[in-house]
Write a structure and sequence with these properties.
Distance between the termini of chain A: 33 Å
Helix content of chain A: under 10%
Helix content of chain B: under 10%
Strand content of chain A: over 45%
Largest sheet of chain B: 6 strands, mixed
Oligomer: heterodimer
Shape of chain A: globular
Largest interface: A-B, 29 and 23 residues
Radius of gyration of chain B: 13 Å
Number of strands of chain B: 11
Amino acid sequence: DAMVIQNPRYQVTQFGKPVTLSCSQTLNHNVMYWYQQKSSQAPKLLFHYYDKDFNNEADTPDNFQSRRPNTSFCFLDIRSPGLGDAAMYLCATSRDGTGGTEAFFGQGTRLTVV
Amino acid sequence: GEDVEQSLFLSVREGDSSVINCTYTDSSSTYLYWYKQEPGAGLQLLTYIFSNMDMKQDQRLTVLLNKKDKHLSLRIADTQTGDSAIYFCAERKSYNTDKLIFGTGTRLQVFP
């Protein structure tokens, strides 16, 4: 059974039109992450939540926001998608964020901007 | 910088061993990981090694760590067609335990 679920798997949005990607987890993990993976590149961390504490990466554009209303759900909001935001967006969770615990990844949402 | 480097492609014959290499940047990294990504899918953790270890073996997988050279390798014994995927190494920085720095990924192709 899937433990980290991302919806939708594929999302097409118009240039400049806000879009929200969702992630849910059944693991009751404290930490949830959002990574951006552009074609043929390494996944890059955008931000993460440790419980309710939001941690933004220094180079994450302001266009990207996140919400975590409860333990199970986390959302990625792109306020004004540009063509350069087309990518695979990966959600991941880990129990407590320490080095030895496994990060579980969802299947990803592939975002296309037209 | 934060670059974790891997060779882009590796092609092996079914039944042979595969060795995927990675060089990382931070000698103080605490954990190093290998992830597998199949087409259109998320990342699956294969194995990880703590920085005070030189080697870790898990069934067909052997991880070697050379801290002096900041070099990590993943050996897959008896490579199968189902092993065809992209393999990412990742390091966890010691000063920020929540962040993984991924390599560029190595595409492994297994042919019969």
